[in-house]
Design brief:
Elements: H1 6-15, E1 20-27, E2 33-40, H2 46-56, E3 74-81, E4 84-94, E5 97-102, H3 104-114, H4 118-140
Antiparallel strand pairs: 1-2, 3-4, 4-5
Length: 141
């Protein structure tokens, strides 16, 4: 398969509901280089993903394996940064702990519009959330 097509195939897989897609370089039989396309997909989307794989790649067969997936409860909180807003993905770990990450697409948009470096926008979003979070904690005390 022409490696230039990988990006297109990945976009199509996400469009039909793949939760994640990974490309792994491998050495195939007879020492030939190859790429394994791995997709994480819900049961409901399996047929759509298979259709893309068979239509858009040179694959003649697909190995399927059912696996369990554990996900943290999460919510989105919007914060203001210079030049726009960014959604923060907040996952609750338990015992009052959280994992927080700025939504990449939002940061990318703000960086493109303002000309700021992407890393600066992401840091500003983290700082804005930390300030918002500390105000919430102070108001509870």
């Amino acid at each position: 398969m022409n490696p230039q097509a990988y990006e297109y195939v990945m976009d199509r897989l996400f469009a039909v509901g793949a939760l994640d897609v990974a490309l792994t370089p491998v050495i195939m039989k007879r020492s030939r280089p190859g790429v394994v396309v791995s997709c994480l997909v819900s049961r409901e989307q399996v047929d759509a993903v298979l259709e893309v794989l068979f239509q858009e790649t040179t694959a003649l067969g697909v190995r399927m394996q059912e696996i369990a997936r554990q996900v943290l409860a999460r919510r989105f909180v919007t914060v203001a940064v210079p030049g726009g807003t960014v959604r923060m993905k907040v996952a609750t770990i338990g015992a009052g702990w959280e994992k927080v990450a700025p939504e990449y697409v939002d940061c990318q948009k703000v960086a493109s519009v303002t000309g700021q470096p992407l890393a600066m926008v992401m840091n500003a979003a983290r700082l804005a959330y930390a300030q918002l979070d500390s105000r919430k904690k102070r108001s509870r005390s």
